[in-house]
Amino acid sequence: MADVKKSNITALLFIIIFFFGAYSHSTAQSRNYQASFKQLEDMVDAVKEQKAEVSHWSLYAREISYPFKRPEDFYEQAGHFKESLPEYKWQSITKEQGTYQLTGYRIIPNTKAKESVSFFAYPQNNQYKTYIIYEVQGNEWNRKSWRFNSREIATKLSKIFNGKETIFSCVNGKYSGKMKAGLLKRTEQVLAHFSAEKVEQDNEKTFVSVSAYNRYWKDSIETNQRKMNLQVALRTVGNASTITIGTPIITSEY
């Protein structure tokens, strides 16, 4: 249990550091979303190649937006969001500890995948910093359905963001029983699937986490002055085993 908490906390710290630029940076994100969509498909393939069943997948995008001077400016922009995305079910604007938030969501038609978009504003230096988060996620993977809906998702991303968003993808898989091969061996097999070079590694008896770099992928962040854009984690608890793959970092619990 302590190992589980440790890995979840590690993932959260990675996300916080990356989002707010404390120790890492990302290369410029192009508006060719097909490259990011292909990465998600590749990660699904890697999970299936390891004889695991996809249990959850997600694509997550974030962008720092324009600052505001007044709370009224946030409400005005929130109104524009609602008008441009009428297909979403919008929740009421909330304010907590000075931070304003607007969130809308919907279930993608003919699927069980859920989309959400959130708009935030928080006070800093006599103004309001803002950022936008988009996420689509599901517990079942259907390649045909994904490719059909990805065209609409690309249109949605172009409408929501201004071309400077950072995109994360993550896939979780589970095994029907305990892995027969060792965790480290399977991790190396996944890295070989992506032609990725190992950058950092956390190797324990029931848990392996590896950060790696795939030179064929455009985006990357830095860790200890080295580039990385792929994380792989495998865990065994009792007779259950799981695999999680994310780019540029894992954004879910594992």
Automatic annotation (TrEMBL):
Pfam families: DUF1779
Range of residues in the leader sequence: none
Annotated InterPro entries: DUF1779 (IPR014794), YwmB-like_sf (IPR036209)
Domain of life (superkingdom): Bacteria
This protein's name: TATA-box binding protein
Highest classification ranks of the organism: Bacteria, Bacillati, Bacillota, Bacilli, Bacillales
